[in-house]
Write a structure and sequence with these properties.
The protein has 478 residues and is mainly alpha-helical. It is 67% helix and 0% strand.
Length: 478
């Protein structure tokens, strides 16, 4: 069930009414409604994988209790590694098995040995990378005595499978979401209105920005050999906005939807394309995943402490693993490696914490230096996105080679004026609202109420105008 579908438009109000009216404010009933709704939501994708979601949930639930009650460290460690091994094992089987087998076979072929690898060709269960990480963080935190094991299976199941974040995040932490699930929740009108506004902005990002960019991205990338370097530059820029509008749009809809149920999810994007260096970009892009890898991989490895070799090793590991998390393709690994190389100088020179505050805070316009730094950072990020979007490494290298050929001086053959206009409007609104939780949180607040509502109605009309066939979100494939 897509957030931008008619089915979800019907589903959400029904769940909302059942949650607030039929339960009469009873917490247990509310959580039961959320759990049933979440499993129904997931079943709309493929009901056959409901068992996998249930199995993963029960595994981590039992493991958490066993770890918490263990009388000795050996037993505690046994249950910890059982949960970790099975969770990662399932992820490898469903997401990476064919990749490893095919890569191994290709490696043998390169040295003169031929083989006929047997692949599984299994359908990738939607959201497996996200709900697996929910469970992993919970078990790790229980094992490290950061949180206590939860004994209520329904409450814990809601934490793992809460439908707004189930298939594409944000990746939640037990110490943030579980306390909200087990406490009494009451309807808050202002919070609900705020949630609807964030949903609206998420739909604008997805339907008006991402989906419109996708049309030209597909055209240019799928026929890249037919276009000049200048047109390929536009294709890369359009993809940068497509993936941002698509994924941050999903996160906005998820966070806004959760607010309707008086639940706050982790912020996942903080206007990353206004970053002044790569380190700042990664503090603002897919925040829940970046902080997950930081806390559960990078810091345990030693982080930025130790000698130069250890610093370089840790950065390479975290970014390559992050790339691999996104998919079983060498292009994602190269994308991660490129970003590691981009960020390494700031880590080694200790300038990675240079830009903490939002750019030009309290000012209408950025300085010339900020504009230059934002442009360079966006350019580097967009360059790396080429590998993320390309079919394979050969496609990416050919694409980049054409960009750096003399054809880059040719006039672009694809310059959609309406899309460029909406991108300009979008960037302007994002810039105006960059100090808020989301861009339109306070838009029009200084004007009379009728002007405020007029702005929202205009956005609604634009969204409806561009609404066409349901387009899947990019991150569902991860």
């Amino acid at each position: 069930m897509l957030f931008n579908s008619l089915n979800f438009t019907i589903f959400l109000p029904i769940v909302f009414l059942l949650y607030w009216v039929a339960t009469n404010g009873n917490l247990k009933r509310q959580n039961c409604i959320l759990l049933i709704s979440s499993y129904f939501f997931y079943a709309c994708w493929d009901w056959r994988f409901l068992f996998l979601l249930f199995f993963s949930t029960v595994l981590d639930y039992i493991s958490g209790i066993k770890i918490s009650k263990a009388k000795n460290h050996k037993t505690k460690k046994k249950w910890f590694w059982l949960s970790i091994s099975i969770n990662l094992g399932l992820l490898v089987i469903f997401k990476y098995y064919d990749f490893f087998i095919e890569s191994f076979a290709n490696g043998l072929k390169d040295i003169g040995f031929h083989s006929n690898p047997s692949t599984l060709n299994i359908i990738l269960p939607v959201g497996i990378s996200f709900y697996t990480f929910h469970g992993l963080s919970y078990v790790i935190d229980v094992y490290k005595n950061r949180i206590k094991a939860h004994t209520n299976l329904i409450d814990y199941s809601v934490f793992v499978s809460f439908f707004p974040l189930l298939v594409a995040g944000p990746i939640e932490r037990a110490n943030h979401l579980l306390p909200q699930i087990i406490k009494k929740r009451t309807f808050n009108y202002h919070k609900a209105i705020d949630g609807l506004k964030q949903i609206l902005w998420g739909l604008f990002k997805k339907i008006v920005i991402a989906d419109q960019c996708a049309e030209y991205v597909d055209l240019i990338f799928n026929n890249s050999e037919d276009y000049s370097g200048s047109t390929l530059v536009f294709g890369a820029i359009f993809f940068a906005f497509q993936i941002y509008g698509d994924f941050s749009g999903y996160s906005d809809i998820a966070i806004g939807t959760a607010r309707l149920f008086d639940i706050d999810l982790l912020k996942n994007f903080a206007f990353p394309y206004f970053s002044r260096d790569i380190a700042e970009f990664w503090r603002r892009w897919h925040i829940s995943l970046s902080t997950w890898f930081r806390d559960y991989l990078y810091i345990p490895l030693g982080g930025s402490k130790g000698n130069t070799f250890n610093k370089i090793r840790n950065i390479l590991i975290i970014f390559i693993v992050s790339g691999f998390w996104h998919g079983a393709n060498w292009t994602f690994i190269i994308w991660g490696l490129i970003n590691a190389l981009f960020i390494l100088p700031s880590i080694l020179l200790h300038t990675n914490r240079k830009n903490i505050e939002i750019v030009a805070k309290g000012k209408l316009l950025p300085s010339k230096k900020d504009v230059l730094n934002m442009g360079i950072t966006f350019g580097l990020t967009t360059f790396a996105w080429i590998f993320f979007r390309a079919d394979d490494i050969n496609h990416a290298t050919q694409y980049i080679a054409e960009i750096f050929s003399v054809s880059i001086f040719n006039f672009p053959t694809i310059t959609p004026k309406i899309l460029l206009l909406f991108l300009l409007i979008f960037i302007s609104i994002e810039w105006y609202g960059r100090e808020n939780e989301y861009a339109i949180e306070k838009i029009g607040s200084k004007f009379p109420r009728y002007v405020n509502w007029l702005i929202y109605y205009i956005i609604i009309l634009i969204v409806f105008y561009f609404t066409g066939s349901e387009q899947q979100f990019i991150y569902f494939q991860f």
